[in-house]
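>> received
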Amino acid sequence: MTYAIRFGTDGWRGVIAEDYTFDNVRRAAQGFASFLLRQGRKDEWVVIGYDKRFQSEHFALAAAEVLAGNGLRVYLTQDATPTPVIAYAVVHQKACGAINITASHNPPTDNGFKVRDEHGGAIPPQQLKEIEALIPPSAEDVKRMSAPEAESQGRLVRFDPAPAYIEHIQTLVDLEPLRQAGLKLVVDPMWGNGAGWFPRLLGGGRTRIIEIHNVRNPIFPEMKRPEPIPPNIHVGLQAVREHGADALLITDGDADRFGLGDEHGQFVNQLRVYALLAYYLLEVRGERGPIVKTLSTTTMLNRLGERYGVPVYETGVGFKYVAPKMLEVNALIGGEESGGYAFRGNVPERDGILAGLYLLDFMVKSGRRPSQLLELLFRELGQEYFYDRVDSPFTGDRAAREQRILNANPQTIGGLRVVGLNTLDGFQFKLEDGGWMLIRFSGTEPILRVYCETTHRDRVQAILEDGLRIAGVK
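>> returned
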C-alpha cells in the first residue's frame, strides 16, 4: 500500500526511516515540481534549505535532484540555514518558491518537508491539496537528475544566503545600539539552525552573549524536543540565573520560532511575547497596520488593536493561514501561539531572529528588562493575562471525539460562564472574563491540545482540567 503524504499545519513530517524515507522525500519533491510546472515555472529557480537533523542535508540534495530532473533550477544552501533566511532568499534570488527540509520543533526521531511560495511564505491550504494530489504513488514515477550533472548544467547552484539576509535585517533594526548596550544575554539555539546568529549580529561591542546548545546534535540533549517552551528551556533559564543575565533568547530547531526568559530566569510565555512585539511596533516605533493572529493567540492583541485603532484579523492555526492573510491586508505583524511571529517589511514567514532583535531593541530603547516590559504592557492594558497549554496523546476515531466535544455544551469552564463557541479551527469556548479555552487536534502529530487564556491566575489549571474532561482524555 502506498504511503500517503499529507501536509499538516506546516508541511509534511514523519519518522525518519519509517515513513520519512528518501523515496518519499523524492515523491513529495515530484509533487511540488509538478505543481510549479503547472504554473508555468519551468526553468525558474527554487531555493532548497535544511536544518541540522539527522540526514537533512542528504534529504535536501535528493529533493534538489528531483527538481532539476523536472526542468527547474535550484539554489541549494551550502549549510544548515534558519527558516527565515531561506524564506528571504526566495525573494532576494527572485525564486518561485522553496523547499525546506526541517521538522522544526518535533522530536529527534522526525524530519519534515515544507514548501513556500514566491513571497517566501506558506502556501495556502487549497494549493497544498493540489500539491498532494500531484505526488506520484511510487518513487519509480519520479524524475531525477544526478547532482553532478545538474551542477555541470548550471541547474544546481550551492550558495550562502546569510549576507543578503543580514544586509536586509539591518534595514529593519539598527544593530549598533544593541551591540553597545552592555547587555548580558544567554542565547539558546536548541542545537539548531539559530546557532551563531546572535553572536554574529551583535558581537564586537559591549554586549556580551553566552551561547549554549550551539553545536549540531540531532538527539537534542537536555530537552525533549527543540521547542522554545518549558521544560525544554530549563537549562537556559538556569543559565540566566547563574550568569546574572538580562534575558534569555531562544530559537527553536529551525530558528523560525522565538522564546524569551526574563532577567530572573522566568519564562515569558509566547502569548505575552506576541503582545510585547505588537506593543513595541505600535508604541515605540509608532507604526500602524493590521494585526493577524490565530485563534489560539492572545486577546491582548484585540485590546491593543482597540487602543491604537488598528484592525485585528483572526485565522485558523498555522502560517498557511497567517501568511496569505498578512499579504492580503499588508499586516504590521502576524503570529501564532507556538512562538512564530512575522513582520511587515520582512517576508511573510516566522522569524525567530528578527523577533529577538526587536525585543532587544524594545529593552534598549525603554531602558527596561523583560519583566519590566511586561509591567508596562499590563499597565497599558489595565489587567494581567495568564495562559497555559497541555498536550495529550489520543487514540480512537477523531471525528467521534470531535462530536463528543460538540455535544458537551458546557455552561461553565473553570468556574467561568461560557458565552460563545468558535469552531474556526478546533473548539474555542469564549469565557465571561474575555478569556477562552481551546481544544484542538494537532495538524502534524496524534496529539490533542488544550489551551487557555484568562485574567484569573487562579483559574488556569481548572480551565485546562475541564478542557481535558470535555475532550474525553481525562
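>> The mean pLDDT is 96.
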